[in-house]
Amino acid sequence: MSITITIAETAQELGLRAAAKIADLLNQAIEARGEARIILSTGASQFETMEALTQQAVDWSKVEMFHLDEYVELGESHIASFRKYLKERFVSKVNLKAAHFVNGEGDVQKNIAALSAELRRKVVDVGVIGIGENAHIAFNDPPADFETDLAYKVVELDERCKQQQVGEGWFKSLKDVPRQAVTMCPRQIMACRHVVSSVPHAVKAEAVYNTITRPVDPMVPATLLKTHPDWNLFIDINSASKLVALA
């Protein structure tokens, strides 16, 4: 278990520092093996990191990208689609070797099986894993299933998770948020060689505090990250506020 916590003054500084760390880890993998694999998370908390990452000196033609989650039966044209998010904010801006998306439309179980097989062909070097307001990782809301060996599965979204999606402006109301999503499972996330978490903004202060101060607990899913051999947590002064007050 190894946790490195970096506190930045602003979300922009956080994004730059997290992106530099991600790039360094990718470059190490490329130097060692001639290729690298990355998992990317989405959402409003990842804006600064995603933008900074596209500006990093990485040979993206040697990098394969996977992503964490997607709503069930939400079209890619919808503003909240994570496929749309990643294509617009990342994939269209770098020359990736390959991009593998979670598809929650059509035959979802067939899509999951194909993506899981592709993901498990080789180890993932860097998992960029955000933390939700309810401390979820991906869409593993509390109580998260820490035991499943599945790479991805369909889950029910809890009310606080749905409220976060409304609060970030992806949906007009709670009733508009899909009931289900496809998510990468916790043990699969933990299989990444390195994990980098970008968690800015005051709305994440409670989740950050609970993650750091509480024991590993499915009711606080992000606490699982503390058991990873190389977890790099980037927070800003706002998301760190409860920790600073504790100190």
Structure, briefly:
With 247 residues, this protein is α/β, with parallel strands linked by helices.
Break the fold down into its secondary structure elements and pairings.
Blueprint: E1 3-8, H1 11-33, E2 36-40, H2 47-53, E3 63-67, E4 69-71, H3 82-89, E5 98-100, H4 108-119, E6 126-128, E7 152-156, H5 159-167, E8 180-184, H6 186-190, E9 194-199, H7 205-213, E10 231-236, H8 241-246
Parallel strand pairs: 1-10, 2-3, 2-6, 3-5, 6-9, 9-10
Antiparallel strand pairs: 4-8, 7-8
Helix pairs in contact: 1-2
Description:
The chain is an alpha/beta fold. The chain has a single domain, classed as Rossmann fold. The chain is 32% helix and 19% strand. The chain is built from eight helices and ten strands. It has a seven-stranded parallel beta sheet, with helices on both faces. Strands 4-8-7 form a three-stranded antiparallel beta sheet.
Structural class: alpha/beta
Helix content: 25-40%
The number of domains: 1
Count of runs of 4 or more consecutive helical residues: 8
CATH class: Alpha Beta
Task: Provide the gyration radius in Å.
Answer: 17 Å
Q: Can you count the beta strands?
A: 10
Strand content: 15-25%
Oligomeric status of the shown chains? Answer: single chain
What CATH calls the topology is Rossmann fold
CATH 2nd-level architecture: 3-Layer(aba) Sandwich
CA(first)-CA(last) distance = 22 Å
How would you sum up the global shape? globular
SSE pattern = EHEHEEHEHEEHEHEHEH
Question: If you average the pLDDT, what whole number results?
Answer: 96
Largest sheet: 7 strands, parallel
